[in-house]
Fold each of these.
Amino acid sequence: MLKSCCVYSTGVLCILFLIAGISLALSQVFQNIVYNRIKSEVVLKNGTDAFAAWENPPPPVYMQFYFFNLTNPIEVLAGDKPAVVELGPYTYREYRPMSNVTFLENGTKVEAINPKTYVFEANMSSGSEEDLIRTVNIPAMTVMEKMKDSPFSGTLISKYMTGEEIGLFTSVSVGDLLWGYEDKLLEMVKTFEPSLDTKFGLFYKMNGTDDGDYVFYTGSQNYEDFARVALWKGQSSLNWWTSDECNMINGTNGASFHPIVNQSETLYMFSSDLCRSMYAVFEKDVWVKYLPALRFVPPSEVFANLTINPANAGFCVPEGNCLGSGLLNVSSCKQGAPIIMSSPHFYQADEKFVEDVIGMKPKKEHHETTIDINPLTGIVLRAAKRLQVNVLVEKIQVFQSQTGDVRTLVFPVMYLNESVVIDDDSAKKLLAVVAEGNVVINIPFIIIGLGVLLGVVFMALMCRQRTPESSPAERQPLLKP
């Protein structure tokens, strides 16, 4: 009788465990406990780990520059395709702590600037900052574009350029091309335009400086607003583009994201480098240092032609002047310089731009921008922002001596890879948080597992109880010796 009581008690416990586990799983009680805790802790306020990581990110950030060295300048001026060879990387350690941090509106917003400092890493580079790069003369191309409709001024500048042997192409060191050098043509043009800066560099005035004052939401009122940009340079929208939608400032600055990220989300980011907001969608699950992550990538629609994505019509500047897919004309926010941004090697751009330049070899794994985010905390575990700087090159009649018979094309100058991977110490801390969260979230399934185990034990006991014992006669051998 005692044995039967134990057997049936096991069956009752099995049913109770299964009911309790399934009920807890469906109601998501433990999941909500973990999520609410994460939401309360991932807030930009003094004393939280999230604020400390946002104010001074611990993982090292590296900026790699790859340049396209032109090998046939004379042939290009005669009308041939340019042939380029990729040189690099030239690697810099990037330091980007937040400064002048001030909390606003009862802690719901925080104001800060984000100065960036770059330090050359010779042991991670394939050459030195003194290496010469032959590329398009961007100051010259900018001046020629501005003066092409002014025959008198254009003729004077063209003669000056001929006398000073300033052409469409030039050789500049890596350091000067990045951080700035005095340009003779700009010095001459300054006599006409006193406000003109005589120095030029792709990252001129961007080393040790910031890109403007930001106001971020802290996430204290809504976790989805964590680190979202509210204002940039005192404005809630841009004024470079021709539609309100394209001028919107959406999302974070790309360094942080809100917690509890799911695969169906679209993540928005504002990039001052691109002078616009962009977005990324889920691509696949990945692992980074034993941590689960969701990989998000910008889809091809982000830079697609307006025939594919009509919402991009506002990025056509001047209005109605649209480039092909994969390109973004940022001249309106780069002091009129004919700068066009794209992915490296024209990845996801129209095939025409790849074919116009000999040496372009777009590859998804090398040239795609990726962001790997831990879905529970929203922490960026690994990221690679990859952008290419190009210049629109064309034949200009008044500058015939400089442009010759050059084709109209988008000439690649260089591309960058700004990358970060979570450091080991941060990964260990996050691994403990994720493991604890997973244990709590999976308590209902642990209970269900115990219920299933008790069910197996119950069935075994029932089968054993119902099997009749054999009599002594039945246990005798069939054949006696």
Amino acid sequence: MVPALRYLGGACGRARWGFPGGFPWMCGPALGRPRPQCGGGRSASTSSFDVVIVGGGIVGLASARALILRHPALSIGVLEKEKDLAVHQTGHNSGVIHSGIYYKPESLKAKLCVQGAALIYEYCNQKGIAYKQCGKLIVAVEQEEIPRLQALYERGLQNGVQGLRLIQQEDIKKKEPYCRGLMAIDCPYTGIVDYQQVALSFAQDFQEAGGSVLTNFEVKDIEMAKESPSRSKDGMKYPIVIKNTKGEEIRCQYVVTCAGLYSDRISELSGCSPNPRIVPFRGDYLLLKPEKRYLVKGNIYPVPDSRFPFLGVHFTPRMDGNIWLGPNAVLAFKREGYRPFDFSARDVMDVIINSGLIKLVFQNFSYGVNEMYKACFLSATVKHLQKFIPEITISDLLSKLESVKIRVI
């Protein structure tokens, strides 16, 4: 265990010590410079860095890029357990650039989402990464949803979301000819992008600035070294030892963990609390047949209900031209299990024993039953979709795709 380490990730803790240049969430001693070459599967037994980032998804790569651009004198390494980067959460999401309308005004989430949307558009323009600013309609289809919609509109204005307006039925038809609704929020600043492509561009920036990426490096242990390595000129300059499942090790002075669905476990390895726990939920998406894609032009979302933990089924255009319909939200039996029958005994036991799942189930029992029903019966999902676009039928749907969403409990 590493009592000196603190943790950053999907469920994050706060550092005890500061870091030169404004990174208070990192922890460790001082700075140095050796820089191994990047590459998948290479021996890491003698590698040392000033900073190591665990996790090669978009959060880890963005963190690595920001660090090396602000602190070019540091040697920084990214460790990724897979042979490729950005293949889990980053590669299994809907690809929406959200505008920041949903979050509580003045909250960190609201500020980061609004600022992040502007930055992602700016970055994509700089790098020539394709995106579509196709907009989003949040549509009220029942009279009882209108007060919630109006409250959401006011929240979006307070958050500084660009271009918001409330529109009536006739303007809904102008934006989405096949969508029915009583009232909607038109959010033109919402867009779509391939986040895996963005993440790989971050990785390229990072490596071009001198950073190193080591793939096929699955972290098994993080500990403080008891003595300096043999024949070492640096002594205890790199006191943190990160070991992988192959017996290789990396030494560093600071460690940042951005481990996605394994955030709590990596936090525990570093000597910090594993709470809050990660509970995985699988989201099943349906595909609209190519000849029916004309039914959807941009993102179409329901009015969120604050009583439930998920947004609900929506319509999402993709950069490849596909239209995703969904997702539902059902408990996954494996943290990175993207198919219905993926199973891990350890992950299941963690959910049962160590999480607040029972409390979540009791709080959202009817919602959970409904999600399970939709997962089992396609007609139930289609019925929900028809509230927004009545022309959609079961025969218009192609297949299911799966993603795994993090639920922090």
Amino acid sequence: MPREIGNLPYLARLAFATNNLVGVAPVTIFNMSALKEISLLNNSLSGSLPSRIDLSLPNVETLNLGINSFSGTIPSSITNASKLSDLELGVNLFSGFIPNTFVNMADNYLTSSTPELSFLSSLENCKKLKVLILTGNPLDGILPKSIGNLSLSLETILMANCSISGNIPQVVGNLGNLLVLELGGNNLTGPIPITFSQLQTLQALGLTRNKLAGPITDELCHLARLHSLVLQGNKFSGSIPSCLGDIPITIGGLKNLQQMFLEYNRLEGSIPESFGDLSSLEVLDLSKNKISGAIPASLQKLLYLKHLNLSFNKLEGEIPRGGPFANLTAKSFMGNELL
């Protein structure tokens, strides 16, 4: 990118996304006061942001630098860019503390200035916040109760692989318009909050590879729009709630559930017959638990089932032959006492 591009004083839109641009992005582009949009997504550009980006780009509405090699700190002055509505900085080399703003900053090297992730409190006044993506940053803190005070417009929280510990606050249930909640790959402990039943719009819940324990709460059965439930790699114990599949009797919902991952836990009891009512189910993984009893014949009704893994449990009896079972291999059932 030539430095001379900064000599276009009336340029309002600079969009070079998804090309093969390399090298350092000219500092002149961050001093073009007429610019409303800068989109350099998905190139191989490097460089850093100016310390007073609010003054050098007073009219910018969209700043998209994702999937590049930009580095340095994210200036706190970015919070003063009053017209900025779309900020994408994910998959770069930014480091330092997270400024008091909201952005997509996944896969950088950002940390929190306090163990309580205090930057979340600063987002309470962002009434139009819809997406919060911090996946892959070493935040190394605990989820504060202030997370429950975020905007009711919030639809997506992606905070996987962030070294977050402690319990999931009950106040997460206040975020009644969430569609996606992904907290996998952290060090979260304690039970699943019973307030999750308040997340009536939730479509995907990911809590994989944490240290969560206790039973899989019946409250999950009230999430009628849920289509992806991923809980493997925790310490859950007790029986699988029969209501997870008891669509016509218990909740009249979950008919859209497509994926259920519950492997690597300590679940006991039998597989509910009502699992056969999950008519949209494509993936069911219950491997490496302590589930006993027979495989319900009702699972033969799962016509869309593409992946079934029941290995390394305490199942016994015969393997059903109809429906999706006709295409399954012995690997799906090994480590049991099945015929």
